[in-house]
Every structure is written in C-alpha cells, then in structure tokens.
Amino acid sequence: MPSGSSRFWTLKGIKGSLRTTAIRSVCIAVICQLALNAFLALPAFGDTPPVDADSGKVRVVLSAGEYSIIKDESGLDVIMMDDFASTTSPGDPMLVHKVYNVLLPPNAIESDLNLEIVSADVQVLNGTYEIKPVGPFAPDVDEFSGGVSPAEYWGENKDITDGKNLNVYGLDANYPENYVELLPYSEMRKWKFVKLDFFPLQYNPASKKLTLIKNVVVDISYGISPDVMDLGLAADTVMDDVATELFLNYDEGKAWYDLERSEFEPQATYDYVIITTNAIVAGSAKLSTFIAHKQNLGYSVLVVTETDFGGLTGQAPNHKAEKIRQWLKNNYVTMGIKYVLLIGDPHPYESGEGDIPMKMCWPRYSFSSYKESPTDYFYADLTGNWDKNNDTIYGEWGAGKDYPVTGGVDFTPEVYVGRIPVYYADYAALDIILQKIISYELSSSTSWRKSTLLPMSFSDASTDGARLSEQMRNDYLNPNGYSSWRMYQQGSIGSCANSVYPSEQELLGGTVVRDRWAAGDYGIMCWWAHGNPTQAGVGYSGCDNSLMFDSSYASSLDDAHPSFTYHCSCTNAYPENSINLAYSVLKHGGISTISATRVSWYYVGQAYGTFDGSPSNSGLGYEYVKRLVQELPGGDALYRAKQSVYPGDYSETTMNWYDFNLYGDPSVSLKNPPTPYVPSVKKRIARWQRSKQ
C-alpha cells in the first residue's frame, strides 16, 4: 500500500476539494517488537513467540501505524493510517483496519481456534471528533441511457438516519467493541493460516472521543492433530514465494512446514494447464503453436479435455463445473499446477451450460434483486467448500451458509485462473487471441507499455471516478514512470458532473474514448463507469452523456499494442452474451481484460485516499493495477490483489470477489521479455535432492 506521507502531501494539493480543510495530525512512532518490553513494562511483550508446532499457541504483536485526521468538504473527520485501510460497514464510523495473516502449524485443528488478548497499550486521544460514516453500497448498473437510479444498500439490521447507523452512533460505547477479531481460517496449498482483523482506533459517538490501541499482544490457540502433513503436499513449492510476503509470522512459522521429505521423490509436473474440449483442440490452428511458445518460456504444459474430467464424480450436483474442479483438486499438488487457462464456452449450467462453464454462485440468494454471479474463482480456490451447507446453491452469503463461515468459501487461491471464451465454435477468434499473446510476449518494442488511459465517469452526484485514478497516479503510476492520459467529466454536461481534478481531455459520450484509445498506445486502460453487457456510459441518470464505449468500438483499436484493461463497471463480462464488452476488447485491443460478470458494487461518495485496501469494485481496480505495475502476471495480479483485501461481511463485496474474472492468459505480464519461468518440478527435485544429502 502507499506510504502515508506521500498520500498526505497529495491531499493538501487537491484542487478545491480541501480549501477549508483544517488538518489535525497526530503521529506515533511505529513500535518495533524488540522495544515493546521496555516501552510497556509488561512482561508479556517480552515473551518470545512460540515457534514449536506442538505448543498449541501462536503469539503475535500488532501495532498501529502513523496516522492523520483531516476534515473533509463537509467538515467531518476522516482518519488515514499508513498501511491500514478504511473500514467498510455502511452507516458506521469510518475508522481504519488491517487484516493480518498468521501462519499456523499444518497439524493445527481449525475448529479449535481461539483468540486471547494478552496485553495492550491503549490511549484515549485528546480532543473530540465527528467521525464520518461509511457510505452505502450502490451497483454500477446501466442507467446512463436514462431510467431509475440504482438503490442504495446499507446492510442488514441497521437504523439509518442522515447516513448514520443509529445502532452505533446512538450509543455511549466504543466502536468497534472488539479491536481484534478472529476471522475464519484459510488455506493456501500446504500453508494453513488464520486471519486477524485489527482496528487500532475505537470511536465513542456520545463522547466523540477516539481511543488508540498502540500495540496489542495476541495469542491464537489451537488443537493439535496427530496426523502429519502428506509428504507430497509438504514438497509443494508453488506458492512459497507468496508465503514469504503473506504471513506476519513467516520467519517463525516456516520451520513447521520444512518436514522430512527423504522418502518423497517428485514426479513429472505440469505448471501450466489448459482445460478445454476435444473439439477446440482439433479445430484451433494456433493452440499447438501457443503450447510450444509457453514451453519455450519454461512452462510444462498439459492439455486437459472432457476425456480427462468428464468421467469424474465431483461435488453435487456434479455438472461440468464440479467435474472440472474435481480434476483440479485431484491434481494441483502432484502436478505442481500454478496457472489454469480455461478455453471454451463459459455459459453457467443455469443458463445453458457451455462446454467449459463458469460456476454460478449466489451471494445475494435471499435478496429480491442482483442475486447471482458467474465466476471462475470456483476453480482457483480448491480447498474451500463452496456449498458448505449442502443445499447445491453455491457461494451463498450469510451465517450458516457458504461464506463467511469456517470451512466454506476460502478466497485464498491454490492456482491462478484465466479464460478465453469461445462462442459458437469461433476458432478463428480464438486463434487471433492466441497469436496476439504469442506476439505480445515476443515483442522487442515495449516502452509504450508504461502508459495508462484513465477514463473516469461520475457514478452519482457525490462519486467522481477521477478520485480513483488520481490516487493510482500519485501512489504508484507516477513514481514508477508511467504516463497518464486522464479523461474526466469537466462540466460540459453541467455542474452535476464537474470534477475538481484537471484532465488531459474532457470525458464525453460518443466515440471520444474510442478515438483516443485507437490513436495512442496504452499498456494499461482502467475506466470507471456504469455499464451493461455490451456498453459503458458517461455520467449517471439525470446527468448522462451517452456512451463511453460499446462492443462494436473494439474493432477500431490497435491490436498490435494491446492493453491490460480493468472495467470498473457492471456486467461488462456477462458470459452468456457472446459480444460482451470484456470479450470484445480481448479480441481487439486488449491483451487481458477484467470486468464483472454481473452487478458490481461501489461505495457512494468514496473519497480520494480510501481506495487502497477497499473491497469496492474500484478498490479492487486500484489493487490490481498496482500489481500490474509491479510487473506481476495478470493472474497473479488479480488473485493477489484479492488476497490483499478482506471482502468483509457483506453480500455486495462478496459478490465483487465472484464477479471480477480474467479473460486472457493468466501468465502474461507487462514485463518483456518475460522472466524465464522456473518450473515447479525443478524446484521440487532440488528440494528433494537436498533432503537426501
């Protein structure tokens, strides 16, 4: 996440948005673990965290970061803390939080997990504060052609008055009640861990006081299983590089996973798997060339068809999606699979079942609208149970259902998944995409890729998409040498959509975005706009200016300089529509496209500086593009972006996790030439040989 200092300097310079801002800054030193004992004079802080897998306990120390409190345009107080994200419960005070991943031994019993706060350094801050509430959710649905504005959602069991939940703002008590919460455990291949949600500031709405938790020592206890980890799983190295960055206590906990492997000899592996159909294998003129290209880059490629997965028995109702997932579950460890490319018709079973379908999930099954979301995440998370309550309605949100519950949907991926849709046996379109990927990865001209196109519409009167791109530019695009062509609404429609941020070109309807994109070479294109399956629009109901982009426009784009795209819109990747906008751009103009298969959700009025770590559709875009700039492959960037953010306890943000899928090759990155890939089999054999010495 961006450093706090750079963000605060940017805030002072925002055009017009902070003219009346009074800044009250309170800084605390980040307390290192070695100094805790002296600082707090509490023996518990000096205790060495247990590292013995048989101790039944893990101890970690959580610390607040540097923070500032500013006043927004309406005079309400907004908190920003270095390396922490804004809280996400609509109507409740907007505080800050951070989710930590704490590694557990492989024989920990997840059902026995327990959290204990050993000690904490707590301080009530001077002064009083009017903490701004979190805005409501709203869907980025098609309203740009007129119609009713989308409904706002505040969550369940809330008493909302003037944007505030009186169930919180009406109490004389600290919010949140618990400043550390234990979330459902998770798995990433061989790695088992638990998530802790830390809230370093509590707010009392009656007294208007803030309480700072400078540091807290936490014990996580667990039962111990007599079972030992399977040697094949222990030898798996595919996500080891991710583990070093993911876990708070990796240095202490990694020894738990360094088990004796002297009797395990690795077998042949396939780190790149293409799941498709026999007809596509026979009908594509470029698939064999594509496979050879990937092998030349160092991948070991395996093609899997219905011949391999069709006879398997997956989870009920045992349709094609469950069979494909079962094949992956059976093989991802022993084969060392990292990347999965799905090639075929994505229609979910509920709408005609394509030959390589997406899985239909139901994050809002109990709601009256926007119930379902087709997803490929089903094939990435292979350890979670997506039908935990066994009702064959997958991915349900809510207590006692499939998420967020222990043992249910686990958003930590075991593999990284991408997809190339194939509709109506259009193998010529598939071959164009495959050849474009080959040419992109072999290109010697790459300097143009360090450029971005940023068309950002208003989603409603208080939500200017320009705030997203300005934070992206200041946090990581500009510092990494990326140029930007900004397209913001500047008042031509009227004062209802007049950004306070300057841009290189005013965002207007018609072919303005198409013409700019076609005339320039952009490594990344990220927009924010209301959408439908084939279009994105400029403005919002009552303040709109026609189309931003249409599926038919894609044919005008330069396919020799294709862009990584992120469409912060609704339904642009609607898989049942063969000319959906994400697929149309993948065919012409894009090297990889990410958008929503159904309705996606944003926070009304989301402010500059709050997109990092946010589970909104725009927050995911911020985190995804950030990782593209770090030159991660698109699949790594998408799934690691989702790993870095907690989707929260809401059906709407859960739906965002299902919705946003990658159309394209998950292993392609902005980096060129690609870093030679070290196949998992080589890593495993090296470790096996070391264990034999």
List the helices and strands and how they pair.
Layout: H1 4-12, E1 23-26, H2 36-40, H3 43-46, E2 57-63, E3 67-71, E4 77-81, E5 85-86, E6 96-104, E7 108-124, E8 137-139, E9 160-161, E10 164-165, H4 166-169, E11 180-182, E12 186-188, E13 191-198, E14 201-204, E15 209-224, H5 231-234, H6 240-246, H7 250-253, E16 272-275, H8 278-283, H9 287-296, E17 301-304, H10 306-309, H11 320-331, E18 339-344, E19 359-361, E20 373-375, E21 416-421, H12 427-442, E22 451-456, E23 458-460, E24 463-464, H13 466-477, E25 483-488, E26 505-506, H14 512-519, E27 524-528, E28 531-532, E29 535-540, E30 543-550, E31 563-568, H15 581-587, E32 590-596, E33 601-603, H16 617-629, H17 634-644, H18 651-659, E34 660-664, H19 680-692
Parallel strand pairs: 16-17, 16-18, 18-21, 22-25, 22-27, 25-26, 27-31, 31-32
Antiparallel strand pairs: 1-3, 2-15, 3-4, 5-6, 6-13, 7-15, 8-33, 9-10, 11-13, 12-13, 14-15, 19-20, 23-24, 28-29, 29-30, 32-34
